[in-house]
């Protein structure tokens, strides 16, 4: 008797090594937190530094998330991104200074309303600035990386000088809204209220971006455009409009990050965005081009490592992130979770 052939479907089995390789980036942050605890020793100091590192990482993620999409989807090296951070900070802080009666009141509702208005104003202005920047400066140099670097750096310098013209050349010092000042004690550790707020805002933004890119049609188009733009256009979608929308959204997120960083530092300067671009590019590179998850993990690694190293060995703090980037790229040359290959 002949036996009927087996037509049941077969599924490719992934080895344990492959599964560990995929999970490895997600394990880096918990591993770093545990190593930080072992190195620091004192639980209260470790908790304070961990919250500070998470807050710093979340704010860097806000600034880097837009740039990684622009870099991955549009293949644009935009050094002008730093200008949007600075402009967002100045616009947002100007709104907060104008609402001094709200920020100085011991009312959480008034304080939050003032911050929200500042954030909305900063995102609108930087989004509009991003639209003009893409149209005038970036569009003529698509596909030419060297020219992109030159013209976007030039745009950054011009915008910084315009900030001097509008707001003056001096630093602007500020204080946080009344209910966001100070710290509270938890498990013997002093945790600043604003840093905890920054952690919450960063988490909410990450979750929102994940939902947009995994659950909506526009998110599907953007993800497909990152991987194969020609195929998306062949299906009838106007990828150019998607490009512009992503650039505007990335610029607006830079403005949001600028407001958050200004309140974090309690001082703003025209060059603050340019200074932050070093950390932003490190996060984009180690996270992988076009990857929101990679940027999120990379930003947390940068924030935590810098805070731990600054406490343990202050002289090494300045080079800790360069060392992190070198180690990650030696392990995974394309970054931890790249959506597209480096071009």
UniProtKB/TrEMBL annotation:
Q: Where in the cell is it found?
A: Cell membrane
Write one Gene Ontology MF term. Answer: transmembrane transporter activity
**Principal localisation:** membrane
Q: Please give the InterPro entries that the UniProt record associates with this protein.
A: ABC_transp_permease, BCAA_transport_permease
Cellular component GO terms, alphabetically? plasma membrane
| One Pfam family it belongs to | BPD_transp_2
Annotated membrane-spanning segments are 23-40, 46-71, 83-102, 108-133, 145-167, 194-213, 241-264, 276-304, 316-333
Membrane-topology descriptor: Multi-pass membrane protein
UniProt lists the family membership as follows: Belongs to the binding-protein-dependent transport system permease family. LivHM subfamily.
The name of this protein is: Amino acid/amide ABC transporter membrane protein 1, HAAT family
Q: Print the organism lineage.
A: Bacteria, Pseudomonadati, Pseudomonadota, Alphaproteobacteria, Rhodobacterales
